[in-house]
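Protein modeling request. Please complete all fields; requests missing the sequence field cannot be processed.
Requester role: graduate student
Desired output: 3D structure, token encoding
Chains: 1
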Amino acid sequence: MQITVGQLAQMLHGRVEGNPDALIDRPSRIEEGGAGSISFLANPKYEEHLYTTTATAVLVAEDFELRKPVKATLIRVPDVYAALAFLLERFGEEQKRSMSGISERAEVHPEAVVEEGAYIGPFVVVERGARIAKGARLIAQVYVGENAAVGEDSVLHAGVRVYRDCRIGRRCILHSNAVIGSDGFGFAPQEDGSYRKVPQLGYVELEDDVEIGANTVIDRATMGATLIQKGVKLDNLIQVAHNVKIGEHTVIAAQTGIAGSTQIGSRAQIGGQVGFVGHIRVADGVKIQAQSGVAGPIKEEGSAWYGSPAIPYRQFLRSYAVFKQLPELVKKWKAKQ
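Delivered output (337 residues):
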């Protein structure tokens, strides 16, 4: 994609300060720049880079005031982050148009369906009965199992594994080495102390606009579905166990673990390294601080929690203010004995 600064400004409803005929062919970080690139300044901490950047153009806020001269052409926009998101989408669409067809080094079963406009990269395996919708992109070494489905415009990055019968919605993004549909952790104890595997016959369903981070694992249900609803964003290295349900537009940070049959509501915000026991419900809009342990249901919508086991957030802070002083309080108490 190559476009002039003036054309970009028109798309972004921005105003040009500098050369409107300068050509742009890629985005860049402001520290790196480079001729033909466009960068952005939204955080004041990076302002000094604006005066030294080699980027051809930089997005800045309408009311941003220069303290020094700049070499780059500026595009002043109402909302820098919104303009950046639009810009990156355009460059992403350009990359997408360059990827279509089936690689000669891919293996697609004759009874699989690959719709026109999909891309199947090298060493991808698509098994019998699988369906890959138009606009979907399967990058190198992706595996899609029997009767699985990948929706329109979804992207599966290198090394993603989608097991049999699992369903990926539209516009989903799965990062490298994510595993969708591995067996749930189900074992029945036996009289001799051994464990007998409980067959896992269900599947995983990702609704539309879900993003799954690298090395995240979502287990198939024992029966029925493990369900990730629309707009959910999961970070890297997350474990989602069998029959879990995560509600719409919930975000979960890295290294969180969710035990089986737990249901997390919509629009929740979960910090990193949070642990959930199984078979509980968490209400809509709940916020949970990183490294908390959720050992029981949370019924109050929009509440905030902290600690292990987790308690209401402000209660934890008040408690922490006391127990961090315990050594000194004990010392004073002993001195009075």
